[in-house]
Amino acid sequence: MAVPFFCAYIIIYYFCIMSRSNQNIHDKFFKQVLSDIGNSIDFLNIFLPKEILKSLDFNTLKHSNTSFVSDKLKESFSDVIYKCNLKDSKKDIFISILIEHKSFPDKFTAVQVARYIDNGYVSQIKTEKKLTPILATVFYHGKKSWQMKSIPDLMEDLPAEIKEYIPNFKINFIELNHFSDGQLMKIGNTFLRSSLFLQKYSYSPENLEKKINKIFGTLFPGTRWNLLNSLFVYYLELTEMDENKFIKYIENIPSPIKENFMSTYEFIAQKYKQEGRQEGRQEGRQEGRQEGRQEGFRQSLIDVIIRGWKKGATLDFLADITGMNVEEIKKIIKENKTN
Fold it and tell me: Residue 200, Cβ neighbours under 10 Å: how many?
């Protein structure tokens, strides 16, 4: 019997984040959150400075298919970039959300952001021959609190006349731990609220278990299924609950969120049980197991692509959930003669 597309998406999303040792699961999830333009607008309205918000026309906000993160900066950041018009003006601006990969404070973050912005301007000169402003926001959800220092602040005891020649610029710094649970609960977008709770307590499985009703109890059932399932999968990855504990903790979550959450858990659990039985039968054949898992995983990806394409999923969406590029997706669709 064919696996429903939404269930296939769950398992593909889960194994995509699990199968890439260098893939930051927090980064993957947060990018999924911001892939929705409505979530993006709500996020920016909450976290951008008020004086900046007054100048932005969010009716023109769109994702920019680019990145200013160089290979040397990939260990520090990934980015989500938007382009937006300024109010009462034909000019536009890049709004860049830099997702901090480190779970600990780095006093040289301002230097890394300077390099990032420089990459952005150099890239613009090469391709557009003009400069569009880049507004950088650093999003940090690590455990330890810290205060980001500017570049001049990193250089102690400099005379004022020397400091004037040191690059200095504002960085919008979001430290999620500075926001109380009460402040997060006031966020009207229930999916964004739940996502930020998960990010805030992502390094504390015990807190996530205790706050499960606060995280999922007020979710809007009409939220897009792919976003809801990414939320469920991320939570399960962070907590790794056994079945008895999971059933106990979700008891008070309202329907239909509870049923959807349970379906996600059962689907993932069943997948692991099947893999465990298969590995038990093939004990001692490590190389064969690895090849079989890789072949099976790729076939699962192909099945999701074909089924998703038939149901109207876009090439970009299929590329996002499978980790393949658009050209690979097109090739698979063509090879399987799916129009």
Answer: 22
Closest by alpha carbon to 144, among 204, 192, 99, 98?
A: 204
What's residue 233's pLDDT? 85
Cβ-Cβ contacts under 8 Å for 70 (sequence gap 6 or more): 115, 116, 119
The whole domain housing 311 covers 297-339
Asked if residue 202 is part of any domain, the answer here is yes
Residue positions counted in the chain: 339
The answer to whether residue 31 is domain-embedded is: no
At 308 the pLDDT is: 72
- Tell me if the bond preceding 49 is cis, omega within 30° of 0: no
Per-residue confidence (pLDDT) for residue 190, from 0 to 100 = 94
The predicted structure's pLDDT at residue 284: 44
Please compute, for residue 143, the number of CA atoms within 13 A of its CA located in the half-sphere on the CB side. Answer: 5
Token digits for 209?
A: 């278990």
Q: How far is it, in rounded angstroms, from Cα 256 to Cα 262?
A: 10
Residues with Cβ within 8 Å of 102's Cβ and at least 6 positions away in sequence, in order, are: 76, 142
Average confidence (pLDDT) per 10 residues, the chain, 339 residues: 46 48 71 92 97 96 91 85 91 93 81 95 87 95 86 89 92 93 95 95 91 89 80 86 83 85 75 54 46 55 76 70 79 78
Dist. CA 63–CA 36, nearest whole Å: 9
What single-letter amino acid sits at 330? K
Residues 144 and 172 in one domain: yes
Write down the pLDDT at residue 22. 36
- Asked if residue 184 belongs to a domain, the reply is no
Q: Are 208 and 62 in contact (CB under 8 A)?
A: no
The rounded distance, in Å, linking the Cα atoms of 266 and 261 is: 9
CA–CA–CA angle 48, 38, 56 (5° rounding): 40
Map residue 188 onto helix, strand or coil: coil
Domains: count for the chain: 3
Count of H-run helices and E-run strands, the chain? 16, 5
Domain-located, residue 208 = yes
Residues 134, 130: Cα–Cα separation, whole Å: 13
